[in-house]
Amino acid sequence: xxxxxxxxxxxxxxxxxxxxxxxxxxxxxxxxxxxxxxxxxxxxxxxxxxxxxxxxxxxxxxxxxxxxxxxxxxxxxxxxxxxxxxxxxxxxxxxxxxxxxxxxxxxxxxxxxxxxxxxxxxxxxxxxxxxxxxxxxxxxxxxxxxxxxxxxxxxxxxxxxxxxxxxxxxxxxxxxxxxxxxxxxxxxxxxxxxxxxxxxxxxxxxxxxxxxxxxxxxxxxxxxxxxxxxxxxxxxxx
Length: 238
Description:
Blueprint: E1 7-11, H1 16-27, E2 31-36, E3 49-53, H2 59-73, E4 79-82, H3 97-125, E5 128-133, H4 146-166, E6 171-178, E7 191-193, H5 201-212, E8 222-225, E9 232-234
Parallel strand pairs: 1-2, 1-4, 2-3, 4-5, 5-6, 6-8
Antiparallel strand pairs: 7-9
Helix pairs in contact: 1-5, 3-4
């Protein structure tokens, strides 16, 4: 009998860490359904990697995409990976209302809303895995990144508390906390990663693959990933 392929709902699937995760999992035989605003920029999708146009900061758009996915699968996904994220850096008073709202809605509000809408069906069937892409900033002080760090700290706290709520229902919760990763996350900063001392999106994808390969009886509730060396450099484009 052919084993049923596990399905994955992945946000932030069109670039950076999310795209790397989607490509990695699709190559491993998962059915990946990616939510992203700019699906047209992904030129070559791997087999088993489908994209849904969706602005996760728009609740109606997010829930419509979830409804469409449920209709296509005739079920809810086995795994949900909250990878979408946005960051703005600088002294707190220099950030605009739009900057702040974008971070709060993308990094915190959307994953909480999406998770909430999936918890009941996950509990009813007795399994599921939520993976939250947080950041090492969740457990640090973050001058010039206070608001971004706050959204990640709140996300990490939400995931940890939720794990205690749902572990008895067979639902796994994992928070992944990467250090600086070479991606567009720092496009709004006056610093960038040093290519010889940073993580790459493929590193996070490998970590997610490892988490999903673990036996059913255990869960890694939090995973911190750091480069061996750590250096940043001035962003000349700023």
